Amino acid sequence: MQKSILIIGACGQIGTELTMALREKYGNQSVIASDIREGSTVLMQSGPFELMDATDYNAIEDVVMHYEIEEVYLMAAMLSATGEKFPMRAWNLNMNSLFNVLNLAKEKKVDKIFWPSSIAVFGPNTPREHTPQQTLMDPTTVYGISKQSGERWCAYYHAKYGVDVRSVRYPGLISWKTLPGGGTTDYAVEIYHSALEEKRYTCFLEKSTKLPMMFMDDAIRATITIMDADPKTIKVRSSYNLNAMSFGPEEIADSIKAHIPEFEMTYQPDFRQQIADSWPSSIDDSQANADWGWVPEFDLDTTTKVMLENLNKA
Question: Quick one: DSSP state of residue 34?
Protein backbone atom coordinates (compact mmCIF):
# COMPACT_ATOMS: atom_id res chain seq x y z
CA MET A 1 0.00 0.00 0.00
CA GLN A 2 1.41 3.37 -1.02
CA LYS A 3 1.61 6.18 1.53
CA SER A 4 3.18 9.60 1.61
CA ILE A 5 4.96 10.01 4.95
CA LEU A 6 6.90 12.90 6.48
CA ILE A 7 9.35 12.33 9.33
CA ILE A 8 10.31 15.48 11.23
CA GLY A 9 13.51 15.00 13.21
CA ALA A 10 14.66 12.18 10.95
CA CYS A 11 18.34 12.51 11.88
CA GLY A 12 17.92 11.83 15.61
CA GLN A 13 18.43 8.57 17.49
CA ILE A 14 14.93 7.23 16.81
CA GLY A 15 14.24 9.18 13.63
CA THR A 16 17.16 7.69 11.70
CA GLU A 17 16.11 4.09 12.27
CA LEU A 18 12.41 4.86 11.87
CA THR A 19 13.07 6.50 8.50
CA MET A 20 14.95 3.47 7.21
CA ALA A 21 12.30 1.05 8.51
CA LEU A 22 9.47 3.00 6.89
CA ARG A 23 11.37 3.30 3.62
CA GLU A 24 11.86 -0.45 3.60
CA LYS A 25 8.14 -0.96 4.25
CA TYR A 26 6.63 1.67 1.93
CA GLY A 27 9.39 2.50 -0.56
CA ASN A 28 12.19 5.06 -0.46
CA GLN A 29 10.35 7.74 -2.39
CA SER A 30 7.25 7.51 -0.20
CA VAL A 31 9.05 8.59 3.00
CA ILE A 32 10.27 12.18 3.19
CA ALA A 33 12.95 12.70 5.82
CA SER A 34 13.46 16.17 7.30
CA ASP A 35 15.59 17.78 9.98
CA ILE A 36 17.32 21.04 10.82
CA ARG A 37 20.61 19.40 9.78
CA GLU A 38 21.65 16.67 7.37
CA GLY A 39 21.94 13.10 8.62
CA SER A 40 23.97 9.99 7.89
CA THR A 41 25.08 9.16 4.39
CA VAL A 42 22.77 6.14 4.28
CA LEU A 43 19.75 8.21 5.29
CA MET A 44 20.56 11.06 2.90
CA GLN A 45 21.13 8.78 -0.09
CA SER A 46 18.19 6.43 0.45
CA GLY A 47 15.38 8.86 -0.30
CA PRO A 48 14.05 12.44 -0.31
CA PHE A 49 15.32 14.84 2.36
CA GLU A 50 14.25 18.38 3.27
CA LEU A 51 16.14 20.80 5.53
CA MET A 52 13.47 22.12 7.87
CA ASP A 53 13.00 23.75 11.26
CA ALA A 54 10.30 21.87 13.22
CA THR A 55 9.18 25.15 14.86
CA ASP A 56 8.49 26.80 11.47
CA TYR A 57 4.84 26.14 10.61
CA ASN A 58 5.07 27.56 7.09
CA ALA A 59 8.08 25.41 6.24
CA ILE A 60 6.29 22.25 7.39
CA GLU A 61 3.13 23.23 5.53
CA ASP A 62 5.11 23.79 2.32
CA VAL A 63 6.65 20.32 2.51
CA VAL A 64 3.30 18.74 3.38
CA MET A 65 1.58 20.34 0.40
CA HIS A 66 4.47 19.71 -2.02
CA TYR A 67 4.64 15.98 -1.31
CA GLU A 68 0.92 15.55 -0.56
CA ILE A 69 1.77 14.11 2.86
CA GLU A 70 -0.75 11.82 4.54
CA GLU A 71 1.08 10.86 7.73
CA VAL A 72 3.52 12.81 9.92
CA TYR A 73 5.90 11.31 12.46
CA LEU A 74 7.10 14.15 14.72
CA MET A 75 10.39 12.88 16.22
CA ALA A 76 12.09 16.25 16.82
CA ALA A 77 12.67 16.97 20.52
CA MET A 78 15.23 18.13 23.04
CA LEU A 79 15.71 15.29 25.55
CA SER A 80 15.85 15.26 29.34
CA ALA A 81 19.48 15.95 30.26
CA THR A 82 20.03 18.46 27.44
CA GLY A 83 16.70 20.13 28.16
CA GLU A 84 17.75 20.90 31.74
CA LYS A 85 20.68 22.91 30.36
CA PHE A 86 18.51 24.85 27.89
CA PRO A 87 14.99 24.87 29.38
CA MET A 88 13.36 27.55 27.20
CA ARG A 89 14.86 26.16 24.00
CA ALA A 90 13.59 22.72 24.99
CA TRP A 91 10.08 24.01 25.70
CA ASN A 92 9.97 25.98 22.44
CA LEU A 93 11.07 23.04 20.29
CA ASN A 94 9.05 20.35 22.05
CA MET A 95 5.77 22.28 22.21
CA ASN A 96 5.70 24.48 19.11
CA SER A 97 6.63 21.60 16.82
CA LEU A 98 3.69 19.61 18.21
CA PHE A 99 1.23 22.49 17.74
CA ASN A 100 2.42 22.84 14.15
CA VAL A 101 1.53 19.27 13.18
CA LEU A 102 -1.66 19.17 15.27
CA ASN A 103 -2.88 22.31 13.51
CA LEU A 104 -2.06 20.87 10.10
CA ALA A 105 -4.18 17.83 10.97
CA LYS A 106 -6.93 20.06 12.36
CA GLU A 107 -6.98 21.84 8.99
CA LYS A 108 -7.24 18.44 7.24
CA LYS A 109 -3.87 18.87 5.51
CA VAL A 110 -2.57 15.58 6.96
CA ASP A 111 -4.56 12.49 7.96
CA LYS A 112 -2.60 10.98 10.83
CA ILE A 113 0.11 11.95 13.33
CA PHE A 114 2.57 10.02 15.45
CA TRP A 115 4.05 11.93 18.38
CA PRO A 116 6.26 10.24 20.98
CA SER A 117 5.85 10.78 24.68
CA SER A 118 8.14 9.39 27.38
CA ILE A 119 8.38 7.88 30.85
CA ALA A 120 9.59 11.39 31.76
CA VAL A 121 5.91 12.38 32.18
CA PHE A 122 5.97 10.54 35.49
CA GLY A 123 7.45 11.99 38.67
CA PRO A 124 8.51 11.29 42.26
CA ASN A 125 4.93 10.73 43.46
CA THR A 126 4.03 8.32 40.65
CA PRO A 127 3.93 4.64 41.68
CA ARG A 128 7.42 3.38 40.77
CA GLU A 129 6.61 -0.31 40.30
CA HIS A 130 4.37 -1.36 37.39
CA THR A 131 3.37 2.25 36.79
CA PRO A 132 -0.23 2.12 35.50
CA GLN A 133 -1.57 3.68 32.32
CA GLN A 134 -3.67 6.18 34.26
CA THR A 135 -1.85 7.58 37.29
CA LEU A 136 -0.50 10.68 38.96
CA MET A 137 1.98 12.52 36.75
CA ASP A 138 4.21 15.17 38.33
CA PRO A 139 7.25 15.50 36.06
CA THR A 140 10.29 17.34 37.40
CA THR A 141 12.12 18.09 34.13
CA VAL A 142 11.39 20.49 31.28
CA TYR A 143 11.33 17.48 28.95
CA GLY A 144 8.78 15.68 31.13
CA ILE A 145 6.64 18.80 31.57
CA SER A 146 6.56 19.33 27.81
CA LYS A 147 5.65 15.69 27.20
CA GLN A 148 2.88 15.73 29.80
CA SER A 149 1.51 18.95 28.29
CA GLY A 150 1.79 17.45 24.82
CA GLU A 151 -0.22 14.40 25.87
CA ARG A 152 -3.07 16.59 27.04
CA TRP A 153 -3.02 18.63 23.82
CA CYS A 154 -3.08 15.43 21.73
CA ALA A 155 -6.11 14.17 23.63
CA TYR A 156 -7.75 17.60 23.30
CA TYR A 157 -7.20 17.85 19.53
CA HIS A 158 -8.60 14.34 19.09
CA ALA A 159 -11.70 15.05 21.20
CA LYS A 160 -12.31 18.59 19.91
CA TYR A 161 -11.29 18.33 16.24
CA GLY A 162 -11.15 14.60 15.50
CA VAL A 163 -7.40 14.62 14.88
CA ASP A 164 -6.05 11.07 14.47
CA VAL A 165 -2.98 11.39 16.70
CA ARG A 166 -1.25 8.35 18.20
CA SER A 167 1.47 8.14 20.80
CA VAL A 168 3.54 5.86 23.02
CA ARG A 169 5.56 6.67 26.13
CA TYR A 170 9.03 5.45 25.17
CA PRO A 171 11.23 4.04 27.91
CA GLY A 172 15.01 4.36 27.64
CA LEU A 173 16.12 3.19 24.18
CA ILE A 174 19.19 1.14 23.25
CA SER A 175 20.64 1.04 19.73
CA TRP A 176 23.94 0.18 18.07
CA LYS A 177 23.12 2.12 14.89
CA THR A 178 22.93 5.66 16.25
CA LEU A 179 24.64 7.56 19.07
CA PRO A 180 22.76 8.78 22.16
CA GLY A 181 20.92 12.09 21.99
CA GLY A 182 21.26 13.63 25.45
CA GLY A 183 18.93 11.47 27.55
CA THR A 184 19.21 10.26 31.13
CA THR A 185 19.06 6.61 30.04
CA ASP A 186 21.92 7.05 27.57
CA TYR A 187 24.35 5.19 29.83
CA ALA A 188 22.74 2.00 28.53
CA VAL A 189 24.13 2.78 25.07
CA GLU A 190 27.44 4.34 26.09
CA ILE A 191 28.30 1.33 28.24
CA TYR A 192 28.49 -1.04 25.27
CA HIS A 193 30.82 1.26 23.34
CA SER A 194 33.09 1.63 26.37
CA ALA A 195 33.02 -2.10 27.13
CA LEU A 196 34.40 -2.89 23.69
CA GLU A 197 36.83 0.02 23.40
CA GLU A 198 38.18 0.41 26.95
CA LYS A 199 36.86 -2.60 28.94
CA ARG A 200 35.57 -0.16 31.57
CA TYR A 201 32.82 2.40 32.07
CA THR A 202 32.09 5.12 34.62
CA CYS A 203 28.33 5.32 35.07
CA PHE A 204 26.58 8.59 35.90
CA LEU A 205 23.83 6.69 37.78
CA GLU A 206 24.02 4.63 40.96
CA LYS A 207 24.33 0.88 40.39
CA SER A 208 20.84 0.02 41.69
CA THR A 209 18.93 2.63 39.65
CA LYS A 210 16.46 0.44 37.80
CA LEU A 211 14.68 2.03 34.82
CA PRO A 212 12.38 0.81 32.03
CA MET A 213 14.39 0.16 28.85
CA MET A 214 13.81 -1.10 25.31
CA PHE A 215 15.90 -2.23 22.36
CA MET A 216 15.43 0.08 19.40
CA ASP A 217 14.04 -2.63 17.11
CA ASP A 218 11.14 -3.08 19.51
CA ALA A 219 10.56 0.69 19.70
CA ILE A 220 10.44 1.01 15.90
CA ARG A 221 8.10 -1.97 15.62
CA ALA A 222 5.79 -0.51 18.27
CA THR A 223 5.74 2.85 16.48
CA ILE A 224 4.81 1.36 13.12
CA THR A 225 2.32 -1.08 14.68
CA ILE A 226 0.31 1.60 16.46
CA MET A 227 0.22 3.72 13.29
CA ASP A 228 -0.99 0.75 11.24
CA ALA A 229 -3.70 -0.18 13.76
CA ASP A 230 -7.40 0.34 13.03
CA PRO A 231 -8.34 3.71 14.60
CA LYS A 232 -11.21 1.99 16.42
CA THR A 233 -8.66 0.02 18.47
CA ILE A 234 -6.79 3.13 19.66
CA LYS A 235 -8.58 3.84 22.94
CA VAL A 236 -5.89 6.13 24.43
CA ARG A 237 -5.32 9.42 22.62
CA SER A 238 -2.90 10.92 25.11
CA SER A 239 -0.15 8.27 25.05
CA TYR A 240 0.21 4.54 25.73
CA ASN A 241 2.57 3.06 28.30
CA LEU A 242 5.19 0.96 26.52
CA ASN A 243 7.50 -1.56 28.16
CA ALA A 244 10.02 -4.29 27.36
CA MET A 245 12.45 -4.75 30.28
CA SER A 246 13.69 -3.02 33.43
CA PHE A 247 17.24 -3.12 34.79
CA GLY A 248 19.86 -1.07 36.60
CA PRO A 249 23.51 -0.35 35.74
CA GLU A 250 24.76 -3.28 37.83
CA GLU A 251 22.57 -5.72 35.90
CA ILE A 252 23.66 -4.48 32.48
CA ALA A 253 27.29 -4.67 33.65
CA ASP A 254 26.77 -8.32 34.65
CA SER A 255 25.18 -9.01 31.28
CA ILE A 256 28.23 -7.54 29.51
CA LYS A 257 30.66 -9.50 31.74
CA ALA A 258 29.14 -12.72 30.42
CA HIS A 259 30.74 -11.74 27.08
CA ILE A 260 33.66 -9.58 28.27
CA PRO A 261 34.77 -10.98 31.67
CA GLU A 262 37.39 -8.28 32.23
CA PHE A 263 34.84 -5.45 31.96
CA GLU A 264 34.81 -3.11 35.00
CA MET A 265 32.16 -0.61 36.06
CA THR A 266 32.60 2.35 38.42
CA TYR A 267 29.99 4.85 39.55
CA GLN A 268 30.05 8.65 39.71
CA PRO A 269 26.41 9.82 39.91
CA ASP A 270 25.77 13.35 38.59
CA PHE A 271 22.70 15.58 38.06
CA ARG A 272 21.07 12.85 35.98
CA GLN A 273 20.67 10.69 39.09
CA GLN A 274 18.00 13.05 40.41
CA ILE A 275 16.16 12.83 37.11
CA ALA A 276 16.31 9.02 37.11
CA ASP A 277 15.09 8.88 40.71
CA SER A 278 11.89 10.65 39.67
CA TRP A 279 11.05 8.04 37.01
CA PRO A 280 9.40 4.60 37.31
CA SER A 281 11.43 1.43 37.70
CA SER A 282 8.92 -0.67 35.75
CA ILE A 283 5.89 0.01 33.53
CA ASP A 284 2.49 -1.65 33.11
CA ASP A 285 1.75 -1.64 29.38
CA SER A 286 -1.18 -4.08 29.45
CA GLN A 287 -3.49 -1.59 27.73
CA ALA A 288 -1.19 -1.36 24.69
CA ASN A 289 -1.22 -5.15 24.57
CA ALA A 290 -5.00 -5.31 24.83
CA ASP A 291 -5.77 -2.50 22.36
CA TRP A 292 -3.27 -3.05 19.54
CA GLY A 293 -1.41 -6.22 20.40
CA TRP A 294 1.90 -4.86 21.69
CA VAL A 295 4.38 -7.57 22.80
CA PRO A 296 8.16 -6.92 23.10
CA GLU A 297 10.72 -9.32 21.63
CA PHE A 298 14.04 -8.28 23.26
CA ASP A 299 15.17 -8.85 26.86
CA LEU A 300 18.44 -7.65 28.43
CA ASP A 301 20.62 -10.63 27.52
CA THR A 302 19.37 -10.68 23.92
CA THR A 303 19.97 -6.93 23.69
CA THR A 304 23.53 -7.27 25.04
CA LYS A 305 24.35 -10.02 22.56
CA VAL A 306 23.04 -8.04 19.58
CA MET A 307 24.70 -4.79 20.72
CA LEU A 308 28.15 -6.30 21.21
CA GLU A 309 28.03 -8.32 17.99
CA ASN A 310 27.05 -5.35 15.85
CA LEU A 311 29.34 -2.79 17.50
CA ASN A 312 32.21 -5.22 17.02
CA LYS A 313 31.52 -5.20 13.27
CA ALA A 314 31.20 -1.42 13.04
Answer: E
